[in-house]
Amino acid sequence: MREVGLLINLSEKLKAYYLERNDILAAARAEYVVLENIYYKTKHQKYVIPNTPNVEFNEEEKNDNNNKNIQKKEVKVEEDLGSFEIEFDVTKRIKDASKFIFENGRDLMKAHSMLYLVYHLALIDNFVEARDHLLMSHIQHTVQNATIQTQILYNRTIVQIGLSAFRCNNIKEAHNCLSEVCNGNIDRIRELLAQGLTRYSDKTISEQKEEKLRQIPYHMHINIELLESVHLTSTILLEVPILAIHNNDTTKYKNITRAFKRLLDHNKRQPIVGPPITTRDSIVAAAKALMDGNWKKTVELILGLNVWNLLPKCDDIKAMLKQRIKEEGLRTYLFTYSKYYDSMSLTDLSSMFELEENTVHSIISKMMINDKNEKLNASWDQPTNCIIMHKSEPSRLQSLALQYSDKISYFVETNEKLMDWRTGGYGYKHYDKQSNNKSDYHQRKHYNNRKYNNNNKSYNKQYNNNNNYNNNRSKNYSNNKN
Q: How many whole angstroms separate alpha carbon 199 and alpha carbon 65?
């Protein structure tokens, strides 16, 4: 890291040298080296570079160098060389280098240069431009067939875009980007980002050495805990209100994030749940508090995480998170408890969630006109400034009663099938006592009796034939004896 400035200075000199010799591809390689070493930097950089010593050779030493004879050489070095500074705008330097490589480089260099540019734009919170560059490049369609180094760089770029979207208050975009990488466990995330080796694998020694060589240097790492916190927080803000529609049942909502569903199911299976210790425990506790409508506890748990201090402008991000939690807490509260109310006051909701009345009015109006399953069945009463609820959805008690009745009917049907299998009959399922419709029952009873009589007749006939055969056989035996 100390020689980055010296490397940049040397690469610029190499570029100028190769351009004089009209070697465009080598000049593009020199620009690629610069881009590879500064794409993860911030906007402005300043480097101090020492002056190189001036070396003077005499005629004999030059001849010795030409003849490749290694001898002692007297070198004259100027004293008090000093140093000089280079200062440049990183964003402008990266854009210039990327443009030069796009025009003169090879395909692999072009792909890496585009990913370096997108990564840097996302790093400086220029989310819209980074997203547009990535979509126009179409790298996401061919990355599955690319080299492993390209796939690692693509994963790092996607993660950085997700973090940039989260910092810019685009929660849905952040969730979509981070879900591609963060759905697995921590070891899987480290492997995808080349920030750690896999513990248990069937790789050979040569493959393990190659994996070690692909590891990203520590000063370029992305914090895994921050990444997981951003992903789970965005999941809470997007999916907890939808879970409230399904009575917080993760089996009914099919599009739930796998990592979030796994954490919720694990928490439900615990016999005793203690206070949160890790980041995951805090986020799961915050999700359960938000499901109950306790947005203040959710704010306390999420903003109490120390990982937010790693982000630039953390105070602005915490204020944004607090505002979003209030809004999603309002939506969750309405979806959960609207069944138990005939009307709600706009003023009460505004004071309960500490939001402005215009904001509450806007959120509820969007919920009313939503065409998807997230629609709130209610209407505004403008004179009283209240929300009138329409009782169209069953309450939680009614839904539990419906589930109970379905299970009982399934249990009765299973018992009838078991009885039919043992007795050979058809059961009494078709016998309707209320309507006194006994036709099906009598038809089946007549059919069963007829079948039983036919079986008895065939059995008696066979029995009589056997008796006649035995009598005839005894008569023949007696005649032969006489």
A: 52
Scanning the structure block, which residue is given the tokens 């540019």? 117
Q: Are 85 and 120 spatial neighbours (Cβ–Cβ below 8 Å)?
A: no
Distances (CA, A) of 174 to 242, 246, 329, 336: 18, 24, 20, 26
Residues 6+ apart with CB under 8 A from 435: none
* Residue at 228: amino acid letter: E
| Cβ atoms 293, 337 nearer than 8 A | yes
Mean pLDDT over the full length of the chain: 79
Q: Among residues 363, 332, 323, which one has the least CA distance to residue 346?
A: 363
Q: Largest Cα–Cα distance in the chain?
A: 151
Tell me phi and psi for residue 39, to 5 degrees. -70, -20
If one counts every other C-beta atom within 10 angstroms of the C-beta of residue 140, the result is 12
pLDDT tens digits for 460-472?
Answer: 555 555 555 555 5
103-110, Cβ contacts within 8 angstroms, sequence gap of 24 or more:
104/24, 104/25, 104/27, 104/28, 105/25, 105/28, 105/29, 105/31, 105/32, 106/25, 106/28, 108/147, 108/150, 109/28, 109/29, 109/32
Spatial separation of the C-alpha atoms in residues 157 and 162, rounded to whole Å: 9
Task: Say whether 343 sits in a helix, a strand or coil.
Answer: strand
Model confidence at 435, in pLDDT bands (50, 70, 90)?
A: very low
CB atoms within 10 A of CB 283: 24
User: What predicted TM-score, i.e. pTM, was given to this entire model?
Assistant: 0.72
- Give the CA distances from residue 305 to residues 163, 165, 297, 298, 301, in Å, rounded to whole numbers and listed in that order: 16, 20, 13, 12, 7
- Closest alpha carbon to 231 in 161, 284, 182: 182
Identify the band that residue 77 occupies on the pLDDT scale cut at 50, 70 and 90: very low
Burial of 34 (0-12, 13-18, 19+ CB in 10 A): buried
Cα–Cα dist 97/202, whole Å: 41
| CA–CA distance, 429 with 357 (Å, rounded to integer) | 58
Whether the CB-CB separation of 322 and 379 falls below 8 Å is answered with no
